[in-house]
């Protein structure tokens, strides 16, 4: 009988589970087809040109545009309906971040349009249509995410699953296309620089996709062609952020949520001065190192070796500081006794999985470098700095992942209800005292509540009304006795709160420092400062082509890890 009673609800979940499986398989096949097209273009496969790849991407973007317009129109017609929202998804700071990346992506699209106009005589029309379509796609998608990132879809669920997963994998393919285009440009520059480091035994063949005609205005063509590659890192981050936000929307389809009050966690600069100062010092020094590195690398063998040595020493120092900060934060967590929030949360689960998954990219590169140093027969002086650098990269991500994942799973401290009650009662009594309660009042109120009595301040107010003027003397005597009895406890409570506030302040400073450090470590690989390419030792041990394939596969994940860590640490800072 129990099984029969439970069968309808179980049976009702089967169609939605099937829809989830079918839509995910549709998205994977969509992605694999695009991935093979991208690979075929990259290796100059016979019969496959860039126009075929761009036509496929344009088609996917147009389908997503139609779905987003349909969803938006349907939402407008059902505006009066009360909808469930996932308060953890689509945080305001995340929307602001993706908007910033989207604005820079629109600048990139305008550069591509200008580049097409200058080379229009020998470029396919799809290369002009693609940036226009992409710009429209970017504008509407950012607007869609601002309006609907928190939605929990409960109608047309099967259709919406296909629409959302289509959007997820469209963005992943656009991310892949951006990564490949930017990597090919970096690889060409790397091949040209290798000879200056003395690796003449490596065959240098440039992978050239440049137009086979002259530019109409040489100066503009140079600006557009160079500017495009400096803007690609922002375009890459935009698409991966969009795909993660859309994935959370997909996971929330048909989800049942518990309605509870969500505490707002605004970002405040108060109390994080030390962390911000040290973080800004790291950020400034990193920018200086990247500028010097890009200027010196490839000029001559001596200058290239000095640039690599400078990079490794700076990175070792920064990573050592980050490891120390992370260990201190974890030790503070061990001293605290706070439970973890294990409730179902797709956004938080995705954050943790992305941290560990994308960290594997840099771990792969680090272990490759360690193995190359051990196995190489000749060791230039600068390569020895690569060993502590690679070891610290592995350790730092271990520690930082532990800190972030534990931070986002820790239950947020609840606002003390006694403070609110005391403020209200103080006003109702017409007192001229400060609206901020003392620790004594909070303690007394909490103790009274635990023993089943009315808090002292409320009790005094009620007694004053019941007993009139005579009650005032009793109330005064009671308060004096209470202050004497609890004076030692007050001092203990004050000390406890002081220690807690100090711990919280240290954690906020650590989170702010690590946030800026991760932004700093995102800059070098994103803008072409990649010693994994330039030190040359790994190419000798593993072979040029195999190592370049490993770097091109792992580097995008390593770059994304830093940006995602920075976003997670920003959230940690708000919660702490």
TrEMBL record:
<keyword id="KW-0472">Membrane</keyword>
<feature type="transmembrane region" description="Helical">
    <location>
        <begin position="93"/>
        <end position="117"/>
    </location>
</feature>
<dbReference type="GO" id="GO:0005886">
    <property type="term" value="C:plasma membrane"/>
</dbReference>
<dbReference type="Pfam" id="PF03189">
    <property type="entry name" value="Otopetrin"/>
</dbReference>
<keyword id="KW-0407">Ion channel</keyword>
<keyword id="KW-0406">Ion transport</keyword>
<feature type="transmembrane region" description="Helical">
    <location>
        <begin position="311"/>
        <end position="333"/>
    </location>
</feature>
<dbReference type="GO" id="GO:0015252">
    <property type="term" value="F:proton channel activity"/>
</dbReference>
<protein>
    <submittedName>
        <fullName>OTOP1 protein</fullName>
    </submittedName>
</protein>
<feature type="transmembrane region" description="Helical">
    <location>
        <begin position="26"/>
        <end position="47"/>
    </location>
</feature>
<feature type="transmembrane region" description="Helical">
    <location>
        <begin position="129"/>
        <end position="146"/>
    </location>
</feature>
<comment type="similarity">
    <text>Belongs to the otopetrin family.</text>
</comment>
<feature type="transmembrane region" description="Helical">
    <location>
        <begin position="354"/>
        <end position="379"/>
    </location>
</feature>
<feature type="transmembrane region" description="Helical">
    <location>
        <begin position="229"/>
        <end position="250"/>
    </location>
</feature>
<dbReference type="GO" id="GO:0042472">
    <property type="term" value="P:inner ear morphogenesis"/>
</dbReference>
<feature type="transmembrane region" description="Helical">
    <location>
        <begin position="53"/>
        <end position="72"/>
    </location>
</feature>
<dbReference type="InterPro" id="IPR004878">
    <property type="entry name" value="Otopetrin"/>
</dbReference>
<keyword id="KW-0813">Transport</keyword>
<feature type="transmembrane region" description="Helical">
    <location>
        <begin position="510"/>
        <end position="528"/>
    </location>
</feature>
<keyword id="KW-0375">Hydrogen ion transport</keyword>
<feature type="transmembrane region" description="Helical">
    <location>
        <begin position="271"/>
        <end position="295"/>
    </location>
</feature>
<keyword id="KW-0812">Transmembrane</keyword>
<keyword id="KW-1133">Transmembrane helix</keyword>
<feature type="transmembrane region" description="Helical">
    <location>
        <begin position="540"/>
        <end position="561"/>
    </location>
</feature>
<keyword id="KW-1003">Cell membrane</keyword>
